[in-house]
């Protein structure tokens, strides 16, 4: 199997005319979703709460499965020799570090809602201060389009992006119902005029109801200037980070690299609490997997840490099809679409990785509840939303 078949470079696929990284930006070729200031209030608060509840319900089964994975991995670690040279294709050694950080955050009470923080990107005290420290940096000020993960501790970052008049790019949680969506003052004019609209657009419910989803072609034409991702733990020496163990941040990065939305020079930033920092190279970079994404910059409520490039592991160059399991492909539609496109373009059959047992995504009934919650749900929905079109 050739390298080009295993790892697709952006140039291997037909692309739309790329947008410049700097200068004026045109809106994505979709109808604008205008939100009037009068459409906010108690109904929208209830809608956001309903969406969040539905999302938490949908995540519950996945968290149970992740808990079982961690328990199994820790039991094997206690019985096996923890050898860095031992084949560990799923990075099971990471679970001990994750658990230590989650336990520490709960024990010291720096964890914030939703709790417990185990098996989540953990929310933390003063997450808003970490966001403020990031927004004061020149790299944030210069960015016009910022991709931010949908997790709770980065909510203040998403708000800062919109308040600064920038374009917010955010993925669907777990890529379960779609790909990436964008929000901006141009797409949702009321963001600039109404604090309640702004508040809602920083939530997953707001992105679901007001965000403009991007197609693959639109994603190719887009350019993102800064990536902000959440972490469970991050090494201050190498920038190596651990997420919650599901690999979606890595998938998002790989897809964006493959589409040409970002490149190796695009800054990757994480905002975390100081208790999530691993000092002195605690993460053995020799044990990282090919798809693991290191960060260039760590921002906490008290510190700003730039990573030494000499100590940083290489960033992934795209999607490594030979390590993607059939089960992961079955879960994420955008991956199946991209795979089919690559195979048709290159005239090859791409490899797949070994089978794995994955936590289930939202079942059909839960997805329906999430869609209804994002639209307000219940009777009279169409009438109440009339001002948003």
Reported CATH architecture: 3-Layer(aba) Sandwich
SS class? alpha/beta
* Tally of separate domains: 1
Number of strands: 11
Give helix and strand order, one letter per element, not per position.
Answer: HHHHHEHEEHHEHEEEHEEEEHHHH
* Strand ordering within the main sheet: 4-3-2-1-5-8-10-11
Please report the first level of CATH classification, the CATH class: Alpha Beta
**Strand content range:** 5-15%
InterPro entries: FTHF_cligase, FTHF_cligase-like_sf, NagB/RpiA_transferase-like
GO molecular function, one term: RNA binding
Protein name: Methenyltetrahydrofolate synthase domain-containing protein
Pfam families: 5-FTHF_cyc-lig
List keywords for this structure.
single chain; 389 residues; alpha/beta; Rossmann fold; three-stranded mixed beta sheet; 14 helices; globular; FTHF_cligase; RNA-binding; Methenyltetrahydrofolate synthase domain-containing protein
